[in-house]
Amino acid sequence: MGHKVKQSLMSSRIDFFYYAFRNILLVSVPLLVVCTLILGLSVSRSSARISSSDNLAISVPSSCTLSSSVDEVHSASIINGTYRSNIGTTTLSTFCNDKNGYSVYAIGDSFNSEGNNTLVGSNGSNISSGTATSGDTSNWAMKLALKAGDTSTTPPTIISPFTNYSTVPTTWTKVATIPSGTTDMEKGSSFTTTYTTYISPTQAAGTYLGQVKYLLTHPSAATPTSAYIMQEVANWEDDLSSPGDSVQAIDIRDGKAYWVTRLADGHIWMTQNLDFDIDTAKTYTHNDTDLGWDPNSFDSNATWKPDTTNGKYNLPVNGTSVPDWSNQNNYPYSADPGDVYYYTSNSEANDIKYNSLSECIAANHTEKDCKRYHAGNYYNWTAAIASNNSSSLTTQYTNAPNSICPAGWRLPIATNADQSIYEFGEMLYRQGIIGSSVDYKYTTNGFNNIRKAPLYLTRGGFIDGSSIINSGSYGSLHARTTYNNSDSYGLIYVKTVISMHNSWDFSKSYGKFIRCLAQ
C-alpha cells in the first residue's frame, strides 16, 4: 500500500477547502502536493478627449494546502506483549493565505472505508484503535505534536486529547486549528503525527494495515462528512475498485453528501436520490454541473442560468400536496419534500415513510441506512436535463446533452434504436434484479432486492398536477433519453412491474427522482 494524496481546490465561494491525504500505518511512501497561488490581474482603461486614467485591480484568491512528507516510515515488527510508541513520523505542512485561519480534521480510513479505525489483518483478525498499553487487548492510537523548529508566529493548536496518544476517530474530528488574524501566513506551519501500538500475547501473528485521513477546512465550515468530492470523481474512482465498494461524496454546489457505489455493471452510481436545491440566483457552469460534458457536444464554456419567468424550483410539499406544481413539458420545475425518508419494508408491503431522520432512527434503523433512503427532490424532465425549454427534444432516442447532476456525473442513457445501450437495464441485470438487460421481468426476490443494499431504491411516488401520487408503492427515476414530444424514458418499478417505457406513462411533466452515474 502506498501513501496517497487527495486534493481538490474549490471556488472561494465555498466554505470548504479540501486537501486530504492518508497516513498509512506500517507502509508508507512519501508524496508531496504543491498548490500554486494564482494571481488574478485585470486592467481597465477609461479615456476622455483631454485626459486619461488607468485603473488597476487585482484579485488574490484564497490558496490553502495540506501536504505530507514522511520522516520515518510507519512500519514496525512487534512481538506479542510489547508496547511500541512512536511508530514512524509524518510531517503535515499547511499553508493558507486566508487570514480567517483553518482547521484540520482526521478520520480512520482503513480499507478505504471512512469511519473504520481498525488495523485490518491479512490473517482474518483485526486490531481495534484504542489507548490500552497492557492486558489482553491489542490497541493502536495516534498522536499529533508541533513540528520541532516551526518558525511560524502562530503555530497550529493541537486539539486535546490528540496531544497524547488517543483513539483514532471514527467520524471527522478536529485535531488541529489555527486562529484568525495570523500575520505570517506566508511561512505556513507544520505539525507531526505518530502512532503507538500494544500487541497482546494472544494476538494472532500477521501483517496489519490501517489508514488515517486528514483534511483541511475553512474554520467556519461545518464539520465535514467526507473528503470525497462528487466533482472530483476522476481522482478517487479507483478507491472503489470492486462491486459493492461505497463512499460518501460531497457536492460542492451545496455541501450535501451522497452515498455512491461501484455496482456490478462496473459503473459508479449514486445509491441515494439527488437532493439538489436549484439556486435561481446562480449561474451553473461546466466546472460544477453536468454542462457541456457530452463527448458529442463538449463545451467547457457551457452554463445554465435557471429561468425564473416560466420555471419553478424547490416548491414546498405539504404531505402529498404540491400546490404550486403544474404539469409542464418544456419549462423546469422541481419540488422539495424536505426531510423525508422512504424506508424499505423488506417485503412486498409499501415502503415506510418517516418525516425526519430522528423518526427513522427511533424506529431502530441506523443513521447510515436512513440517510440512504432519503427521498431527495422531485424534478420534471426539463429541470433534470438543466434546460429552460426542452421543446426541441422530441425525436425518439435523442439524448439530452446536459443534466443537473454534478460535473463528472450524468443521467443514465435509457435506450437507443437497437437497444444496445440500456444502462438502467444493464445495471439491474448485473445486480440480479431482472433476468435480461432488455426484457424487464423481476427475478425471484428481484423486487425486494431492488430496495435493499447496495441499490437502496425508494418508492416516493411521483408528482402529477398538484399531488404526489402513490408514495410508498411507486418508484420512478429520470433518464436522459427522449421518447417523443411529451414523454421521456426512465425507470419505473412497483411490486408487479418494472418498466423503461412500455405502456406506462413517462410524461416529461411529472416530478420524478434522479440517480446519477459517473461519467
Polypeptide structure, described:
The protein is mostly beta strands. It has two domains: 5-224, no CATH class; 273-519, no CATH class. The protein has six helices and 33 strands. Strands 1, 2, 8, 9, 10, 12, 13 and 15 form an eight-stranded antiparallel sheet that branches. The chain is globular, with a radius of gyration of 26 Å. Residues 1-19 and 27-49 have low confidence and may be disordered.
Q: What's this entry about, in short?
A:
With 519 residues, this protein is mainly β. It has helices at 233-236, 357-362, 367-372, 381-384, 423-430, 446-449; strands at residues 5-8, 18-25, 40-47, 52-59, 64-72, 82-84, 89-96, 102-108, 118-121, 126-128, 139-146, 157-158, 173-178, 189-199, 208-217, 228-229, 246-250, 257-262, 268-270, 284-285, 303-304, 312-316, 333-336, 341-343, 352-354, 378-379, 409-410, 462-464, 467-469, 475-482, 488-493, 498-499, 517-518. Strands 1, 2, 8, 9, 10, 12, 13 and 15 form an 8-stranded antiparallel sheet that branches. Strands 5, 6, 7, 11 and 14 form a 5-stranded antiparallel sheet that branches.
